[in-house]
């Protein structure tokens, strides 16, 4: 069990991207000391972190590990295990929350790595956009002491919600089920638009959606955010597919979604990603180039 004497946590954030910086801001607002490590971070990340008052840079990861009572990992899915190894290899013995979009099976591997150094693992999953106002975004926690940790982290814009039950990885399972719909259907829409464009009926499809599915128009117009973050989403789709597979359910839909996002990774962090017809044309071009590359290899 955790030491309950201290009313203030020292929390380390790995790594403060757009979501991570909002998590840091919320924990600072809740009265915690919050740290990050600037070593190996991009200049954009450094500038973002420096703009947050009360967010202390330890410079090196070992400084963050040595000072933190709790570390929370908020990284792209493919980096979750490597980050856990980096922390455990430094002998971390505090509390570690993995809040990444990973399958329960991957979360179990992260837990095994973290616990090998004597640390306490708590499973996490973030649902919602970067937390700017209370009620928009939730961090779900599961596992031993999740309720107590939530009581220490609540108080800012990010709502921290402990899950009950015996499934220690239920936070990751919830995240997979939720993102399977939100990001999965965005990939489906991109695929449907591309199919319609290739068949010469995209304008007609948009017209029909406006008549019979009026809510889709707004969703189509918001796809730019998915395009610019596709480099992060393809790993998430693979984790969701793995979750389906391990549950002995069909996993093909999210494997296909991963393929769409993987190919859109060229628009990483783009401020003006293609939209509507241009997006469909771009997907067609990418897959045609892939096909030509395969033909040349034969």
What does this structure look like?
- This protein is of the alpha/beta class.
- It has 13 helices and eight strands.
- The protein has helices at 18-29, 43-50, 61-67, 80-88, 104-115, 146-153, 170-198, 202-212, 214-221, 224-228, 230-246, 252-263, 276-297; strands at 10-14, 33-36, 55-57, 70-73, 95-98, 120-127, 138-142, 159-162.
- Strands 3-2-1-4-5-6-7-8 form an eight-stranded mixed β-sheet, with helices on both faces.
Topology (elements, then pairings):
Elements: E1 10-14, H1 18-29, E2 33-36, H2 43-50, E3 55-57, H3 61-67, E4 70-73, H4 80-88, E5 95-98, H5 104-115, E6 120-127, E7 138-142, H6 146-153, E8 159-162, H7 170-198, H8 202-212, H9 214-221, H10 224-228, H11 230-246, H12 252-263, H13 276-297
Parallel strand pairs: 1-2, 1-4, 2-3, 4-5, 5-6, 7-8
Antiparallel strand pairs: 6-7
Helix pairs in contact: 4-5, 7-11, 7-12, 7-13, 8-9, 11-12
């Amino acid at each position: 069990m955790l030491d309950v004497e201290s009313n203030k946590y020292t929390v380390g954030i790995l790594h403060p991207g757009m979501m991570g910086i909002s998590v840091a801001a919320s924990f600072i607002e809740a009265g915690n000391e919050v740290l990050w490590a600037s070593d190996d971070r991009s200049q954009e990340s450094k500038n973002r972190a420096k703009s947050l008052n009360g967010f202390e840079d330890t410079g090196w990861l070992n400084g963050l590990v040595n000072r933190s009572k709790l570390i929370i990992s908020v990284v792209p899915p493919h980096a979750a295990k490597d980050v856990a190894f980096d922390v455990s290899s430094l002998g971390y013995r505090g509390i570690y929350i993995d809040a990444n979009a990973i399958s329960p099976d991957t979360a179990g591997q992260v837990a095994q790595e973290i616990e090998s150094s004597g640390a306490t693992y708590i499973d996490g999953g973030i649902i919602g956009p970067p937390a700017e106002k209370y009620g928009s975004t939730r961090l779900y926690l599961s596992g031993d002491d999740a309720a107590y940790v939530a009581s220490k982290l609540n108080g800012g814009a990010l709502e921290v919600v402990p899950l009950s039950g015996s499934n220690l990885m239920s936070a990751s399972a919830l995240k997979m089920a939720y993102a399977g719909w939100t990001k999965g259907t965005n990939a489906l829409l991109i695929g449907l638009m591309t199919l319609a464009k290739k068949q010469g009926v995209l304008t007609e499809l948009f017209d029909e959606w406006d008549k019979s599915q009026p809510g889709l128009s707004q969703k189509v117009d918001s796809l730019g955010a998915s395009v610019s973050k596709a480099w992060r989403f393809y790993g998430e789709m693979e984790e969701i597919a793995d979750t389906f597979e391990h549950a002995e359910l069909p996993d093909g839909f999210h494997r296909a979604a991963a393929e769409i996002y993987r190919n859109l990774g060229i628009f990483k962090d783009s401020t003006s990603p293609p939209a509507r017809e241009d997006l469909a044309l771009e997907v067609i071009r990418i897959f045609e180039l892939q096909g030509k590359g395969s033909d040349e290899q034969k």
